[in-house]
Amino acid sequence: MDKLLNGVVEFRKQDFEDHKTLFKNLKGEQKPHTLFIGCCDSRIVPALITKTLPGELFIIRNIANMVPPYRLANEYLSTTSAIEYALQALEVETIVVCGHSNCGGCATLNDQPSVKNLPHTSKWMELAATVKEKVNQQLPEHDTLAREWLTEQTNVVEQMKHLLTYPYIKDKFKAGKLTIMGWYYIIETGEVFNYNKEENCFTLMN
Q: Binding of Zn(2+): at which residues (predicted)?
C-alpha cells in the first residue's frame, strides 16, 4: 500500500506539475483521438506503449481485449456501452485493438481446465470460440508456443471483425472517417506488430 500512496504524492509533486497546463485544459472536457481496446493484464500500459498523454486515449480493458458482437439488450453491457460512447459521443478517429504475448485469457482457449473454477471468465471467453476453431484448423498438433502466438494474433483479428458489427462503426469505416488497427505487443521485447489486412499478417512497427 505504501508504494501506491507514495506514488500519488510523487505524481502530484512531479508529473502533475510537469503537465499542469495540460490538466487545466482537460478540466472541462476530453477529446481523445483514439479508442484503445486492450487486455486488463497488469503488464500492459497503453499510455506507456504509445507515449501518449492524458486526454489522448479512451481506454477499454477487459480479459483478452474482447469486443462483444453488437446487440441491443436490457443487460448492463460495459464494453459495448464504452465503445458506443467513444464513437458516438467522443467521435474518436481511430480504434486500436491491442493483443499481447503470454495472454492468460487466450491461454484458456487451449487449456479449458484452467478456468473450471472461474465461471464468469469461462463464459466471457466464449466470445473467442471462433478463434479456437481457426487455430485448431491451422495447428492441430500440440505445438504450445506456436499455438499461443497464433491464438493471440487470431484473436486480435477476430475482435476487429466484431467491431464492424456495430452499425455506426461500419458506416464510419466505409465512409473513410474511421481507422481500425490491430496490434500485437510482445512483453519481453517491447516490439509492437501491426496487422496488415492485405497480407493477412502482423508486421513489426519501426
A: 39, 41, 100, 103
Q: Rounded to two decimals, what is the model's pTM?
A: 0.95
Residue-level pLDDT at 28: 95
96/160 same-domain check: yes
User: Is 19 buried (19+), middle (13-18) or exposed (0-12) by CB count in 10 A?
Assistant: middle
Q: Is 142 annotated as contributing to ligand binding?
A: no
In the predicted model, what is the mean pLDDT of residues 78-101? 98
Instruction: Tell me the per-residue pLDDT of 17-59, one tens digit each, with 9 for 90 and over.
Output: 999 999 999 999 999 999 999 999 999 999 999 999 999 999 9
Other Cβ atoms closer than 10 A to 151: 25
Task: Give me the residues paired with residue 100 across strands.
Answer: 185
Range of the domain at 52: 31-204
- Collapse the DSSP code of 192 into the 3-class scheme (helix H, G, I; strand E, B; otherwise coil) and give the result: strand
Residues 64 and 1 in one domain: no
Q: How many domains does the chain have?
A: 2
Please give the helix or strand (H or E) that residue 39 lies within, else none.
strand 34-39
In a shared domain, residues 18 and 102:
no
43 CB-near residues (< 8 Å, 6+ apart): 100, 187
**Was 19 annotated as part of a binding site?**
no
